[in-house]
Q: What sequence folds into this?
C-alpha cells in the first residue's frame, strides 16, 4: 500500500499531488512534543475512563478478548452539551468554488499553533476491511476527549501488527494516508458553529470546535469515500446484506440518511427465514469493475432509541454518547436508551452484534433500494429504466435527521433532497450520478424506492417494509403500472391503495416531482455549476411530470 513516506523522495513542487500546505500543517502537528501516541485499545480504554465527565457504567463489554480490551471492561458514556449531531454548516471543502484556500490555510495554521498549548493523543486505524480496498488513517485529538478517541479506535479497525501485516498486502493505491486533526476546544468568532475543513485531494481534514463523535467518524469516511472514488470504486452511504436462499444468493444495498430505517433494514434478521450475511449498515464501497463490495468499518454507530432497555443488543454496546444514565433495581449504573436527555443518543456496537458479519462480498449486487420519506410515494416502487433509477438516486427525498445539528430555523418535517443519501461527498455530484447510471445500465441490478414515512397519511411500518423486501427477495412481488408513468411500477399493498383518479393525490405527486426537477435545474448555476447533472437528468424528470398531466 503506497503511503506518503514512500513518495517522500519525489520532488515537492506547487502541483505535487501528495503534498499541500494543509497536508504539511496537519501531519507535522502529529509529531509535536505535546502528543502521545496510543497503539492499543486497553490503554485507550484506561485513558477514556479518566477523561472529564465520563461515566463508567456497570454494563459489561462482551468479547473483550477478541476486541483487545481488559476482561472487566465496561460500557463508557460521554455526553456533549447543546450540540448532539453533525454540523453541516461547518464544512468547507478546499477545491470547491468560493473556498479561498489561502484564507483557510491561515486559519488552519493558527488553529494548530493554538493546539500546541494543549495535550493530544494520536492513533492509527485502517479504513476498509478487505485487501481490495484499504487506506490507513491517523487521528490526532485533544486528550480531554479521550472517550471520543477510544470510540474512534473501536469504530474503525485499530492498526495492530496483525492488521498492518494484512494491510501491507492490500491493493496498493497512489494516495496519501488519511490525517485527521481534531481540537473540540478551538473557538473563533469567525466560526461560531465550528469548522470542519477538508483537503480531499491530499486526504487531510481539521475538525475544529466540534465535540460530537460523529464528526470524527464522518470526516474519516468523507476522505475514504473520496479515495475510493478516485480509484475505481463507487462510494456508498448505506447498508449492504446478502440473503442465502439455498439454491441462490440475493445481495441488496439500501441507501438512506440516519433515521430513515437504513440500519433497521440492513440488520433485520427476518425471523430466521434465511441465512443473512451483513456487510455493514452505514459505509461501504462497490468495485466499479467487478461489482464486489467492501465494508469500511467493523463496528456500528447507531441510535440508542432503537433499543428497549431489555434488548439483547445492549450486550454488544461498547460506548455510548449523549444518553442518560440511571441506577437499575440492583443499584447498578445502566444507560437510558430512550431519547430523554436529548435527541440522537448514540452507541458504538461491536461487530459481534450480527453473527453472520462479513467484510467483503464477492457476489455482485442484485438490487439497490433508495430509502425516502415522501408521502406521495407508495411503500415500494420499482424503477425499470437505468437513467430514471440514477435520477431518483440523485434526487433522493427524505426528512431531516436528528443526527444533524441544524443551524438556524429549520422545518424538520419539510422534505429535503440529499443525493444518494450522502451529504459527505467532496467531489462533483455528476461523478456519483455517472457511477450509478453506469451500474444500472448493465441490466443486472434492479432498482427500487422504499418509502419508510407516510403514504397518504398512513404510516409505512417497518413490518410492511421488511415484508415487502422479503417478497422481492423471494421473487414473489407483484408490481402494477404506476398510472401512466413509464418505467415505474408499484407493489400493490391493500393498506396503501394508489388512486390516480384522486386529483389531489396526483397534484401532490406532480408537485414532488417538480421539486426534484427544480433541484436538478438549480445545480446548473449553484456553486458555479460544480454539481451540475447531465441534461438527461432534467429531460427525464420533465417527461415524468408530463406523464402525470
A:
Amino acid at each position: 500500500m503506497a503511503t506518503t513516506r514512500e513518495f517522500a523522495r519525489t520532488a515537492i513542487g506547487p502541483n505535487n499531488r501528495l503534498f499541500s500546505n494543509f497536508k504539511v500543517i496537519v501531519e507535522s502537528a502529529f509529531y509535536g512534543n505535546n502528543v502521545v501516541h496510543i497503539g492499543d485499545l486497553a490503554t485507550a480504554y484506561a485513558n477514556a475512563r479518566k477523561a472529564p465527565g465520563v461515566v463508567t457504567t456497570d454494563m459489561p463489554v462482551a468479547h473483550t478478548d477478541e476486541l483487545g480490551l481488559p476482561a472487566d471492561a465496561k460500557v463508557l458514556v460521554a455526553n456533549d452539551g447543546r450540540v448532539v449531531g453533525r454540523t453541516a454548516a461547518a464544512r468547507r471543502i478546499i477545491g470547491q468554488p468560493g473556498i479561498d484556500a489561502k484564507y483557510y490555510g491561515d486559519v488552519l495554521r493558527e488553529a494548530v499553533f493554538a493546539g500546541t498549548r494543549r495535550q493530544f493523543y494520536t492513533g492509527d486505524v485502517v479504513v476498509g476491511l478487505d485487501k481490495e480496498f484499504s487506506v490507513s488513517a491517523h487521528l490526532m485529538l485533544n486528550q480531554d476527549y479521550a472517550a471520543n478517541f477510544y470510540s474512534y479506535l473501536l469504530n474503525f479497525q485499530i492498526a495492530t501488527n496483525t492488521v498492518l501485516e494484512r494491510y501491507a498486502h492490500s491493493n496498493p493505491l497512489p494516495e496519501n494516508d488519511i490525517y485527521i486533526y481534531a481540537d473540540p476546544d478551538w473557538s473563533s468568532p469567525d466560526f461560531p458553529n465550528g469548522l470542519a475543513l477538508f483537503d480531499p485531494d491530499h486526504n487531510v481534514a481539521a475538525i475544529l470546535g466540534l465535540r460530537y463523535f460523529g464528526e470524527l467518524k464522518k470526516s474519516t469516511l468523507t476522505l475514504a469515500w473520496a479515495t475510493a472514488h478516485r480509484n475505481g470504486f463507487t462510494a456508498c452511504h448505506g447498508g449492504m446484506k446478502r440473503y442465502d436462499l439455498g439454491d441462490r444468493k440475493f445481495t441488496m444495498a439500501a441507501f438512506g440518511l440516519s433515521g430513515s430505517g437504513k440500519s433497521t433494514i440492513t440488520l433485520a434478521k427476518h425471523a430466521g427465514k434465511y441465512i443473512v450475511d451483513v456487510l455493514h449498515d452505514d459505509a461501504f464501497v462497490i468495485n466499479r469493475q467487478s461489482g464486489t463490495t467492501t465494508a469500511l468499518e467493523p463496528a456500528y454507530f447507531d441510535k440508542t432509541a432503537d433499543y428497549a432497555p431489555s434488548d439483547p443488543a445492549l450486550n454488544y454496546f461498547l460506548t455510548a454518547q449523549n444518553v442518560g444514565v440511571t441506577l437499575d433495581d440492583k443499584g447498578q449504573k445502566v444507560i437510558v436508551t430512550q431519547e430523554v436527555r436529548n435527541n440522537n443518543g448514540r452507541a458504538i456496537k461491536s461487530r459481534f452484534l450480527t453473527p453472520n458479519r462479513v467484510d467483503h462480498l464477492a457476489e455482485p449486487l442484485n438490487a439497490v433500494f433508495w430509502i425516502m420519506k415522501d408521502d406521495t410515494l407508495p411503500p415500494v416502487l420499482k424503477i425499470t429504466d437505468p437513467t430514471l433509477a440514477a435520477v431518483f438516486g440523485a434526487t433522493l427525498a427524505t426528512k431531516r435527521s436528528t443526527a444533524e445539528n441544524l443551524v438556524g430555523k429549520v422545518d424538520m418535517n419539510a422534505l429535503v433532497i440529499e443525493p444518494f443519501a450522502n451529504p459527505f461527498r467532496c467531489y462533483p455530484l455528476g461523478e456519483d450520478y455517472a457511477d450509478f447510471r453506469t451500474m444500472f445500465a448493465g441490466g443486472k441490478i434492479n432498482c427500487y424506492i422504499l418509502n419508510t414515512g407516510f403514504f397518504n397519511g398512513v404510516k409505512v411500518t417497518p413490518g410492511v417494509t421488511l415484508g415487502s423486501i422479503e417478497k422481492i427477495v423471494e421473487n414473489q412481488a407483484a408490481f402494477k403500472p404506476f398510472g401512466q408513468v413509464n418505467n415505474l411500477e408499484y407493489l400493490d399493498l391493500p393498506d396503501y391503495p394508489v388512486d390516480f383518479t384522486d386529483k389531489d393525490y396526483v397534484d401532490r405527486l406532480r408537485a414532488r416531482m417538480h421539486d426534484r426537477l427544480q433541484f436538478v435545474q438549480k445545480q446548473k448555476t449553484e456553486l458555479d455549476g460544480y454539481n451540475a447533472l447531465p441534461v438527461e437528468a432534467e429531460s427525464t424528470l420533465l417527461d415524468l411530470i408530463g406523464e402525470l398531466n
About this structure: The chain has a mean pLDDT of 93. The two ends are 56 Å apart (CA to CA). The first helix runs from residue 21 to 29.
